[in-house]
Amino acid sequence: MNERPLILICDDDPHILKSLQISLKSRFEIHISSTVSEAKIKIKNHEYDAAIVDLNFEGQELDGVHLLDFFGKSSPGTYLIVLSGDQSVKRVVEATRRKLFQFIHKEGDYFADLYSTLTRATELKKANEVQAIQKYLTNSPAVKSVLKMAEKIIQKDQDAPILILGETGTGKEFLVRHIAENMKRKLVSANMATIAKETAESNLFGHERGAFTGAVQNKIGLIESANNGLFFLDEIGDCSLDIQAKLLRVLQEKEVMPLGSSRARGINVNFIAATHKNLNEMALDGDFREDLLQRLNTFVLRIPPLRERPEDINFYANFYLEECGDEGVRYTISNDGIEVLLSYNWPGNIRELKSVIQRFVVLSNRTILNADAARSAIGIGELSPRSSSTSIIEVKENQIKKDELLKAILAFDGDKQKAAKLLGVNVRTIQRWVTKFDLTRSLSDLNLGKGVSCD
Ligand SMILES: Nc1ncnc2c1ncn2[C@@H]1O[C@H](COP(=O)(O)OP(=O)(O)OP(=O)(O)O)[C@@H](O)[C@H]1O
Ligand SMILES: [Mg+2]
Fold first, then answer.
1. Relative to the CA of 167, which ligand 1 atom is closest?
2. Which domain range does residue 326 map to?
3. Ligand 1 pocket, residues with Cβ under 6 angstroms
4. 117 and 163 fall within a common domain
5. How far apart are the C-alpha atoms of 290 and 428, rounded to whole Å?
6. pTM for the whole structure
7. Kind plus residue range of the DSSP H or E element containing 87
8. Which residue's C-alpha comes closest to atom 29 of ligand 1?
9. Whether 176 and 109 share a structural domain
10. What is the mean pLDDT of each run of 10 residues along the chain (455 residues)?
11. Is residue 216 part of a domain?
12. CB within 10 Å: which end of the chain, N or C, has fewer?
């Protein structure tokens, strides 16, 4: 987003075109057009962030109002500013009806006004774009069809829940939030991995006054509070067997039974569950209820891992690089850099890719993510100073450990539990390694320091 905004100026007066072009070019990329027909060709070929449009085009068949209409149809995202000396009320009204950002009267010293209007319009456009893009990014047909399918199921108000499967960091939660936002549905979530065991039941299903010591008044549970909306059971694979049994009833009967109550209450809720775990295997091991799995298995949506959607690797990398740029610096990626990203297998998926780009931008002095920079951002820091007594084998082992550790921590945005789980060690070991490999500083530069502390 660090490119200069692209502006089209359409005016039949060549002096105005020239002087505006000169005065605005330090901040904006300017295209000019002295005829309406030429402007239309340009609009077809470029996506303008904003346009400055005159209304009268002397001796031409088409005028500025026509151009505004053309923008409306062909490039509705362009912010339109009319710059005109024509104040005849009819024209002004006609023009303002057409989604104008601002009308500026071409009289006296209008430049300051025009400049600030243009700045405002382009900043607003950028902010809106970022917001819109952050809503959901993908270039992958497979992911798009997952999205469509989920919305279709919810739209039809199916009773059966949706189960979203995907490796860690593929965007399961992100997808659910996006669906809820897009469908304007209320969303209530509970994370089965982090919900406190002692209060899980009362939080999920609610309780009646006196149900247990401390239950001084009735409480509506999270599930019931999602009435007429969506309830998201995140990390369903981490759900205790007790809660699984109760959830099954809720899913089957579409009613909740608050703790201490003898009466079930009907609910109208669409359930979405997600996990990165293999529920079939868990069921075989007796860790997941077979009947609940059957219930969840009706609509299964799989978000493919990043390594299976090269189009997204490219897309996200470019997007996040662009996002990191500012006025002075523009980050880009070279072809061999892309090759490296494409050949990596991304165990932490989008979350990891985001961290890798962040790591490159913060720790590297380059602005082009080439193959070397990509390799080192993916996982390799410098060797810690080697003590003379350290053997080569030990150094190698340490390097591998350090690489793995960094990768795991980056993949999970600094989440010590998840990194530990991935590496099959406990959290204290992670902390010891961070200290041993002198990574505290690098991680806190990336704002990941807190996540690896054991406190
Ligand atoms: N489609 C997307 N567009 C933009 N960013 C995304 C998208 N999907 C995921 N992300 C980013 O990736 C990060 C990980 O996504 P999310 O937390 O939804 O993954 P997850 O599949 O729920 O992971 P986990 O299994 O570890 O809980 C998010 O912070 C989000 O910024
Ligand atoms: Mg998640």
1. 25
2. 307-452
3. 136-138, 166, 168-174, 276, 350-351
4. no
5. 35
6. 0.60
7. none
8. 351
9. no
10. 83 94 94 95 92 90 87 85 75 59 82 87 72 70 91 79 95 90 82 88 92 85 89 95 94 93 91 96 94 94 95 93 80 93 93 90 88 85 33 49 76 79 75 78 65 36
11. yes
12. C
